[in-house]
């Protein structure tokens, strides 16, 4: 009887333990399936390294964009520049970026994504050195034009390169790092620009370019570009390096080859073909968003933040640092929300915030000009600018680029994307060049004008822009054509 009892207890313990072991094993297996096993994570190290090297170009982009704001007073004083001369210096960056944007596609297709980034870095290095050694307006403008050209090429080739090397499940997350690093570059330039001379700040722009140039010797070329030009062996080696030596790349390689073959069968589209009736709706959406993004005042405010704070009576160093600190986390928040909240809600919230920010800033200048609530006016100005940049960062900064990448059919994506990018950089140049003149004319009127443009963007988004969240490209195209 005692033995029977012991045997029964042993069987009971085994029956209890067996399901626990099974459940534990099942749970571990599920976690491995979701998160990837240890080897799989190791295989993605090259993807992460390649992305890091590429977004050094995005950081260099931000450094170029953020340079003029903290250095305006010092450069004008040291080199005795007029408002017109400094306005040309600030805005010629975007003119160079327009040229870079136009030529970036053909260059990236001809010499490769790595070659385009290498050339872009060389232009930026030459530009920063010209600014550092400048003794007058001409050398400053040549250097600024060169960095602008490099910035324009970066704006196209970096996101394209990341999208082409990233695995399907990481593509969205890795691509958003591009916009985040641009904001980081701007913020770092704003912060350290309050501590360094304008010549020393120019030298710091060389750092991300140097890291990028060195890293390009380590990372592989885009497998899709190699497949497109027919380098089959190099294509397979690059894909193997990115996915790991033990990964099965046969399925992905076949998909890439099928895509390249489909692309080659589609008719070639030139710029004038974009204005056909069947493409017009998507063209209006993409180009329209770029117009409202730029003519809402972002580059004028970004380039001349320091002078805005000075004009309002708020300490420019303190305001610029607060501006820089708030920009990065809000941009990161927007990247998290874009696939959860949707594109249109973010655009509407962002545009509404831009209107409020412009009205607050404009009101502060009105109060100061009429000597009403003189002590409160500077606080109102900095509040308005922070509301403006926070609102822009969460939606209107990144979402137009995302929507643009989703609404164009594949056979016009290159030509339509180039047109939208050109319009974007033209708007950036026009806004940054006219900003100082508008502020001289009427500070209050300048921000009310920007508020009106942003109010129109709300109507544009409500009436014309489609929601693309959670829809296939074919569904998006069908929706646009139906409207």
From TrEMBL:
CDD domains: MFS_GLUT6_8_Class3_like
Keyword Membrane: yes
Record's keyword terms, sorted: Membrane, Sugar transport, Transmembrane, Transmembrane helix, Transport
Subcellular location: Membrane
Residue spans crossing the bilayer: 47-68, 88-108, 120-140, 146-166, 173-192, 198-219, 283-306, 318-338, 345-367, 379-403, 415-435, 447-465
Keyword Nuclease attributed: no
Span of domain Major facilitator superfamily (MFS) profile: 50-469
PROSITE patterns membership: MFS, SUGAR_TRANSPORT_1
GO CC, any one term: membrane
Matches recorded under InterPro entries: MFS_dom, MFS_ERD6/Tret1-like, MFS_sugar_transport-like, MFS_trans_sf, MFS_Trehalose_Transporter, Sugar/inositol_transpt, Sugar_transporter_CS
NCBIfam families in alphabetical order: SP (TIGR00879)
Protein name, as recorded: Sugar transporter ERD6-like 7
Source species of the chain: Nicotiana tabacum (Common tobacco)
């Amino acid at each position: 009887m005692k033995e029977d009892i012991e045997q029964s207890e042993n069987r009971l313990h085994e029956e209890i333990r067996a399901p626990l072991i099974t459940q534990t094993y099942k749970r571990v297996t599920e976690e491995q399936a979701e998160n990837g096993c240890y080897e799989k994570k190791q295989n993605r190290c090259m993807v992460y390294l390649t992305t890091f090297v590429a977004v050094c170009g995005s950081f260099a982009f931000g450094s170029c964009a953020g340079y003029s704001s903290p250095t305006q007073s010092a450069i004008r004083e040291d080199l005795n520049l007029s408002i017109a001369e400094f306005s040309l210096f600030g805005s010629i960056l975007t003119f160079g970026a327009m040229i870079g944007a136009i030529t970036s596609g053909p260059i990236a297709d001809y010499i490769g994504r790595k070659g385009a980034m290498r050339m872009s870095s060389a232009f930026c290095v030459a530009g920063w050195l010209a600014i550092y050694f400048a003794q007058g307006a001409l050398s400053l403008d040549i250097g600024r034009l060169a960095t602008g050209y490099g910035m324009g090429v970066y704006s196209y080739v970096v996101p394209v390169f990341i999208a082409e090397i990233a695995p399907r499940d990481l593509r969205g997350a890795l691509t958003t790092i591009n916009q985040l690093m641009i904001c980081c570059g701007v913020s770092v330039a704003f912060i350290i620009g309050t501590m360094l001379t304008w010549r020393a700040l120019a030298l710091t722009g060389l750092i991300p370019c140097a890291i990028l140039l060195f890293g390009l010797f380590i990372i592989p070329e885009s497998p899709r570009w190699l497949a497109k030009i027919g380098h089959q062996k190099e294509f397979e080696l690059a894909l193997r390096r990115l996915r790991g030596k033990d990964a099965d790349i046969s399925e992905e390689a076949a998909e890439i080859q099928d895509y390249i073959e489909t692309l080659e069968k589609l008719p070639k589209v030139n710029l004038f073909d974009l204005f056909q009736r069947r493409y017009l709706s998507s063209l209006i959406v993409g180009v329209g968003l770029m117009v409202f993004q730029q003519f809402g005042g972002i580059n004028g405010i970004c380039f001349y933040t320091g002078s805005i704070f000075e004009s309002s009576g708020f300490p420019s160093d303190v305001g610029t640092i607060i501006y820089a600190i708030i920009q990065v986390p809000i941009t990161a928040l927007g990247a998290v929300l874009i696939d959860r909240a949707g594109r249109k809600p973010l655009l509407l919230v962002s545009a509404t915030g831009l209107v409020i920010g412009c009205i607050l800033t404009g009101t502060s200048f009105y109060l100061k000009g009429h000597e009403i609530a003189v002590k409160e006016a500077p606080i109102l100005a900095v509040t308005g600018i922070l509301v403006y940049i926070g609102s822009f960062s969460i939606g209107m900064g990144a979402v137009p680029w995302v929507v643009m990448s989703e609404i164009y059919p594949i056979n016009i994506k290159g030509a339509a994307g180039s047109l939208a990018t050109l319009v974007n950089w033209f708007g950036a140049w026009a806004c940054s060049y006219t900003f100082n003149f508008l502020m001289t004319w009427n500070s209050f009127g300048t921000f009310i004008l920007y508020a009106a443009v942003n109010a129109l963007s709300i109507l544009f988004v409500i009436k014309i822009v489609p929601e693309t969240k959670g829809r296939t490209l074919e569904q998006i195209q069908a929706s646009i054509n139906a409207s």
